[in-house]
Amino acid sequence: MRKKIKAIFLIFFTTSFALLSAQNISVSGTVADETGTPLPGVTILVKGTKKGTATDFNGKYKISVAEGTTLVFSSIGYKKQEQVVSGEILDITLIEDASVLGEVMITAEFGQKRAERGVGAATQTIDGATITESGRENFITALSGRVPGLQISSTSGAPGASSNVVLRNITSISGSNQPLYVVDGVPMNNSSFDPNGMAGGATSEYSVNNSDFSSRGNDFNPEDVESITVLKGAGAAALYGSDASNGAIIITTKKGKAGKGRVTFSNYIKLSNAYGYPEMQDKYANGARGTTNYYYTSKYGGLYPEGQQLYDNVDAILQTGVQQRYNVAVEGGSDKATIRASFSQLNETGVIKTTEYERTNLSLSGRAQITDWLKFEGSMQYTGTENNKVRRGTESPLYRAMLWPVVDDMSNYLAEDGLHMRNPEYYHDVDLLNPLFDMYNNKYYDESDRILGNVSLNFTPIKNAFLRAQVGWDVANQTYVSSRNPYYAYNNAGDGSYSLVNANYSDPSINILSGYDNKYFDDKLSVSAQVGYHQLENKITRASTYGTNFIDASFQSINNVDPLTIVSKQRNTKRRVQGISGQFQVGYNNMAFLTFRARNDWSSTLPKENNSYFYPSIEGSFVLSDLDFIKDVEAISYLKLRGSWSQVGKDARPLQIDPELQTTGLTGGGYKYGFTGPNRNLKPEITTGQEVGVDFRLFKNRVKGTFSYFETENSNQIIQGFRLSYATGFVLNTLNVGTFETKGWEAAIDVDVIKTENVTWNLGVNGSHGTSEVVYLPENVTEYYNAYTWLSGNIRTGISVGNPITSLTGRAYERNDNGDILISPTSGLPLTSSEWSNLGNREPDLRFGITTRLKYKNLTLSGLFSGRLGATVVNGTKRYMMQRGTSWESVELREGPDQVFEGVIKDGNENTANPTTNTISVDYGTYGSSIFTGGDEDWIEKDIKYIRLRELRLAYRLPDDILKKSKLLNSMNLYFVANDLFTWTNYSGIDAVGNAVSAAAGGVGGEGYDVMAIPNPRSYSIGLSIILN
Amino acid sequence: MKKIVIIYILIVSISSCTSDFEELNKNPLAATEVPTPTLLTSATQNLINVNSGLGYNKTMMFYSQQWAQRETTTRSLYGLSAEGDWSAFYGILPEVMEIINLNSGDDKDRYSVYGKNENQIAVATILKVWVFHNLTDTWGNIPYSETFNNDITLPKFDKQEDIYPALIQELKDAVALIDTNASGFSTGDLMYNGDMAKWKAFANSMRARIAMRMSEANPSLAQTEVADALGSTIFTSNNDNAVVAYQNEEANANPLYIEFLTQAWTFIAEPLTELMNTYGSGTDSSPSDPRISKYADPNVDGDYIGFPYGLDTSDTFFYAIDERSLPNEMTRAIDFPSYIMTYSELLFIKAEAEQRGWFGSVADAATTYQQAITASMEQWGVSGTDTNTYLAQSDVQYDASNWKKYIGEQKYIALYSQGGNAWSEWRRLDYPVLNFPMAATTNATEIPRRYFYPNSEGAVNGDNLAQAIADMGGDTFSTRMWWDQ
């Protein structure tokens, strides 16, 4: 009993003590800059203690302290300010500190912060809000146009399409050119599934030209992004080693903010419409030589009869795409620990019927200061996706819809029995496939479940030293299905096929870093050193099954195929890279820095003798604006010169060393070799890069700019599928061949043109330029090409010494010494050379982006333009339409006068002083454009100028005085975004920035090939985001 | 203390796995080292598919005018299609070379369970020589000494005159390795089922073939080697023939069977039926050579009439299918074997050696010649009575003063179904007399004396190819072999 009383007393005592200390008052207010813009993330500390808080997104804070306490307000880039608490409201205006602004920290390798001053390579940081506000469902496309030197090409406008990302320039002829994606220090798999090598995967429907599976980077929820740092070039990401030889994109996720817990809710709805697809002529019917005949698919027939009903069959495959995303995030915590959880659901239907993309994201992240010397951080993201798609290229619905005779209503795709594919009216030949039958009756989708997680411990055993250990894991299970209804075949007479692939990958990584930094000689000399151990594994297991001969024609399942036709394959690969890294930096007076970095990797994909490779780098920076005589120049707020030299090695893909034996169906069960031979001498690729640059801020930071010039040499290129003499015993091999150089520049400038209390107008322009030259290929190779780029006529990406690696080659016209085109004396048509020659360069002279933001009180209008100048594009769509007579141009040609091609007759006199000028006229009137649809040269459009309004956004933020009245509502934003609204270009095809090859292909990619792709649709979205306290 | 524990944990976790990187880079699901019999099976199957297939062999059956094409006659008129043949020959070698590697490497004991290492190497070497001999006889100079070397991606072309002695040496080395008391391949040997004595006989018989082929180019070496080979263990009956049967299943079927499942465009050529029918008093309806009924099917009238050789595609339609002879049904059977070298051929070599005074006595040549024909008759299942009737005919009886014609024609007939071999012997002996088709494409101006190089080689090994062409004096159908000058 007595004990009980004691306990009650104790409880009473402690509670009243708590009440006593609660005599504090609650102070709140807004922290803003000189223009009145609220400042988020300002640290507020009770002077002399560690107690404190920080401002939220809207610059608001709330803290409970005793009256008379001094609060210290600080934020990077602003002068520290102290205020004594004298009431419940305390609004603060922070003054920018030009000199302190230099202390910007960037997120470097492994999530480590580095002072921007000391970095010698080009980096750029994009904040999460920019990504979420872009109206894009994936963060990769959202970056487009914002970072100079970052090239992003979507392979189509279809939901879930892969995107090919290149930082600076292409660095590998046949390997991956994608940068490394890193989430909170852990590499994120961004592969695109390549169905080649799967069971039944040899057919064209599985090629990288005709199929496209999502890039796994699309999985990431843009709402979870706190910031993205782009480390350009090998030098910036040197410590990441092999995988980052193409640069790195570092994503820092939101970890929750301290202070009062809050809930963020956002939602948008987006409507999209296809536009810009080619217009088909509706004047002449199918046929030849002016006679209508629906047995022909080309349209050189007679005029459609009066009153003939014509159908827009391209329209029949299209619909209005609808996209919706909901996102809820909860966060909160104390100054010791914060936590954030979010849920997001994205549903999208594309502009092509039956295309769908669904994504569910769940994430949990947080950080905790466990003791003074131990900090924990962790995050975990789950992503589930489902993507129904359509094929591309010559298997695409657009291609097939354009073949369908317009006198027939293609949308009626089923035969009367409701099972078979209907053949078009008027047309009794049976080799036309109805794309709608394909879309509704065949399966073509992928599904994925993925978890990306990491935990890290940061340990500070003694002052100025740290030890950080991080374990991350990226695991996913994916299913890919592609099937064909038996009736989706010529004459409805197919067998039906079903292909099922299950792929798992598991990428664990470990990074352990330890460092020490200190200052000496009155803080004049700073020294920091860091060593690290790194381990990464990529394990892929894939099992595939393929079968044909459906037993029940209408039932699509692997269980419905003839069991005797089932073929299965399994393929597992594993790669492990272990590395140690070191970094040593000395700084003088926080003004001049010199950094040495080095890494040694051991990779399992290289032969034992060559599997250890070391590569160093060095970088330096000098903050000129800290020099006395520049400090006084009012106009210059910050000026830094930087430079770096670096080397990065890159290993091969797994299983390239030993040839594999395959079973044969031969007597006695034999084993035989495949086509690819062994290479036990494979060496790592080496990328050597150097760059110089300048970063500056002028006029009290109203003008910010950066410029970099870089040169890179890529040697020992590992080329897969390199053709060899049969006499070596193998047709193909993986070899270290090829060296090429790239150079170029990047620049960005950002200006606050107007900066007043109510109105601010910011304008940013960025641009980049890069050229490349192949300097070495083996002597016997005059042209190396990737077969998958051979997409239109004889045009392909041919790599030859002395030319850029993005060169287009094709069969040009024959010409005489004078340069005149040679004409055949019999047909009057230009003659085509049998040799391939260089026809152009896909890489534009300039890639640029323009951002603008006009803010008036609570209204913000912003825009993003991106564009290219001087690119060369292959207009495969137009060529195809000309061949078939489906374009208006072909009608013009047909109705116009007979053509006499300019040139000289190849009659033996072509190289004499008096060549015979061609006078032979070609009868387009009778034959239509089919008589001559042009050579490769004619379908290459040069000097393409292109600018697209990627994003136009109007946002309204609820004014503070309204918000203040609400206890619950912390902020509310309403916005309207239009994406891909307009394009201005001198290009005459569908999509000047199209990419006809799935990102899975790697190598030189398919940018600049416009072949029957679906361009990015025009879309409008309306959205709302609310933060509740 | 806590800090120390944490440091300890970190250090322990670092010191993990620098272990077996090499294992990681091996595909656990794909074989990289397999039992050697499976390689032998695969190589043998590849070999017979060249030797009796629809690619190289069929082309050579046309060039030697033993078969004729109906409908599309591009190939028999010397249209270009060398690509696949070049790769098919070289494609036999990876498995063959791997047998040699595995049996001579550090782990060779592991493979001795499938047969004595040396015996396995010998078998593989014999097959390797067969491949290179056919390659050089088809193209002339070819990559040989620098092939299958991981360090050489651009192999040079060796001269034929250097390849011949090297091949002969390889065969001698192989024979030296053979231990007939020890086991050969325990399984997977489709040709001799592990009987090393027979492999030895094949190696020596093939050496006689190769040596005899340089009879005009290097007679002294030819003489030495032919004589030496004939004096060693060689074929002594048709039971020793190098022959591999096809199987009674479509995956391993006789290629001609597969072709005839869908089309009947390949006929016996008229020059062959004429030659075989008209010795002595023979006619198309009563042919003098009894083997014709084994080679060819009778036409609708019961006669053996081949299809005219070398017609334009459009002209072939003037000849009714049922009036001409197709390859005999037996040779189109699913399991009809592939003949690589026969006893009969060896006896013809022996007869020629005797005739040339290189071996035995000149007087024996006539007898050996008859034995050779008899062996061929026996091989094709002709009765002894029919054989003797045939041998008795005046045009068949050996005439030593015109021995090239007699041996040439009879060897040509006996080599039926071995197109490449028949073509080579025709090039060497210039018998029987074959006519150049008037409708031939402009690629050729005479019956080809060799094959042109494939385009792909120029793309991947251009400099070496250019050197080879310069050495040979051209790359045409008329460029002569070293042994056929």
TrEMBL record, chain A:
The record, for Pfam families, names:
CarbopepD_reg_2, Plug, TonB_dep_Rec_b-barrel
Residue ranges of domain TonB-dependent receptor plug in the record:
118-248
Family under the similarity heading? Belongs to the TonB-dependent receptor family.
The UniProt entry, under NCBIfam families, shows:
OMP_RagA_SusC (TIGR04056), SusC_RagA_signa (TIGR04057)
Which keywords does UniProt give here? Cell outer membrane, Membrane, Receptor, Signal, TonB box, Transmembrane, Transmembrane beta strand, Transport
The UniProt entry, under SUPFAM superfamilies, shows: Carboxypeptidase regulatory domain-like, Porins
Name used for this protein in its record? SusC/RagA family TonB-linked outer membrane protein
Q: Which organism is it from?
A: Aureibaculum flavum
Residue stretches making up the TonB-dependent receptor-like beta-barrel domain = 439-807
Classify the protein's membrane topology as the record does: Multi-pass membrane protein
Question: Where is the protein found, in the record's own terms?
Answer: Cell outer membrane
Q: Signal sequence: where?
A: 1-22
Automatic annotation (TrEMBL), chain B:
Classify the source by domain of life.
Answer: Bacteria
SUPFAM superfamilies in UniProt: TPR-like
For this UniProt record, give its keywords in alphabetical order, as a comma-separated list. Answer: Lipoprotein
UniProt key word Lipoprotein: yes
The protein depicted here goes by the name SusD/RagB family nutrient-binding outer membrane lipoprotein
